[in-house]
Amino acid sequence: MKLTVVQPEFITGKEVTLMGNTIQAGFPSPAEDFKTDKISLDVALVKNKETTFYARVKGDSMIDADMDEGDILVIDKSLEPTDGKIAVCMVDGEFTVKKIKVDKDCLWLVPYNKRFRPIRITEDNDFLVWGIVTYIIKQV
Asked: N or C terminus: fewer CB in 10 A for the chain?
């Protein structure tokens, strides 16, 4: 899976209309039909503006984590890359997004698609964790 960087201007700070506080996934409530609030996506999705960036998903190695081609990832570089987190990494000059799995003697980058094999990170790899995925913005 490859990622393309999205310019930070993607989220502009402009407030957009939020229809109600929640959307029913079960039986709808007619009383909530006309309630609206305002929300700023950069305030809702970005905790640390200076260390957050965006990338567009390309490929299908993470489809079982609900990351589809064209989705935009919100990635925070200030978060600690710990076991079980989904991270954007640079491996031997290429970006990838995978789940971090820490073993006692090595690090693995694990895809969420059974057609792909985990990547074992060794001292021979040029490796860097760019950041941790905090949100997926879905393209529908």
From this structure: C
